[in-house]
Design goal:
alpha+beta, two-stranded antiparallel sheet, globular
Length: about 350
């Protein structure tokens, strides 16, 4: 066993002191570098750039997620309208007319009420329905209590919320009937001839030679099948004017804002497809929202089918396929997978 001398003890003690000094010095140096030092300008700019890139990546994803929710809600609203139409069908045995009409004192036939007014009791708006005077037109003073009301199920959440125009209040709908493809559209698109060009819902009267069918429409008349025939369409954004891509149009350019036939109770909110709807590149919906099939959802629109389902179709859909889905009694065969 080695016996430490006084010199050995002194050397061991000095080594311990040197180790403590080195440790203390290193800690102080680290503190001075880490705690007391700040970011350099270059480091700050790098951090800002990284945050900017992350935000640039995140915001479009958030916006896309929000639009997905809005589009899903829009589909839900269309399905509720479809359920209301089928509830009417269960009660009456026929599909409702797109609008009711009457013969004026001058012998001309005039519009009176819209199909959405007829559906009020089936979308939990029985009070408004009970307040309607069916012998007067929709815009008559006696009907204002019933018709001057915003009804959420008639609105697409992607469209603007408040659509009042100046002092004029609007009670719009983003969903409408479209009941005829006119000859001008058929010629522009080069569609093959069919026995008829009407959709499921029809006005209660028409003296046009282009109507080979008449209301009332029984389910048995939809020979192409309820799951292969359009029933209701998006017609979003009215009375504001929108153009392709969801951009606002010039309010002073014809047609001027506010667009006509924008209220849900207005029988004129339903429309037919005229030649003007076909753009130079051949697209026939989502070009403008002036009484046309139009959606503010990017790339296409939601469509309600006669079986009550709702589906999204791109605005680049093949014209013949669209016509086959639009008509309900032309013996069309719809491609599988739509």
């Amino acid at each position: 066993m080695k016996i430490e001398t006084r010199r050995d003890v002194r050397w061991r003690r000095n080594d311990s002191f040197r180790s403590l000094n080195r440790f203390a010095g290193g800690a102080d140096a680290g503190c001075k570098r880490g705690c007391c030092g700040g970011f350099t300008l270059v480091e700050l700019l790098v951090v800002i750039a990284i945050v900017g890139v992350l935000l640039g990546l995140l915001l479009p994803a958030v916006q896309a997620a929000r639009e997905t929710v809005r589009k899903t809600t829009c589909v839900s609203h269309m399905r509720q309208i479809g359920l209301a139409i089928h509830s009417y069908l269960d009660v009456n045995g026929v599909f409702p007319p797109t609008k009711t009409t009457y013969v004026a004192s001058n012998g001309q036939r005039r519009d009176r009420h819209n199909v959405l007014t007829i559906l009020l009791p089936f979308v939990e708006e029985s009070a408004a329905y009970s307040a309607v005077d069916w012998t007067a037109t929709w815009s008559a003073a006696v009907n204002r209590e019933a018709t001057e009301k915003r009804i959420p199920v008639f609105l697409c959440p992607t469209a603007p919320g408040d659509r009042d125009f100046g002092t004029k209040k609007y009670y719009p709908t983003d969903y409408a009937s479209c009941y005829l493809i006119r000859r001008g559209v058929r010629n522009k698109l080069g569609l093959r001839e069919r026995s008829e060009w009407t959709s499921v819902l029809l006005p209660d009267f028409s003296n046009s030679s282009e109507f080979s069918r008449r209301a009332p429409v029984y389910p048995s008349a939809v020979v192409d099948g309820l799951s292969s025939s359009f029933l209701f369409f998006e017609a979003s954004g009215r009375p504001f004017k929108f153009l392709r891509g969801g951009r606002r149009g010039d309010p002073n350019e014809t047609p001027r804002e506010p667009l006509l036939n924008s209220d849900w109770a207005d029988p004129g909110s339903g429309f037919v497809m005229d030649a003007d709807v076909v753009a130079e590149d051949g697209r026939f919906f989502n070009n403008a929202n002036n009484n046309e099939i139009f959606s503010l959802h990017p790339g296409g629109a939601n469509f309600l089918y006669a079986d009550g389902s709702a589906r999204f179709h791109p605005d680049t859909i093949d014209a013949e396929t669209f016509a086959a889905l639009f008509t309900c009694a032309a013996s069309d065969v719809v491609p599988a997978g739509l």
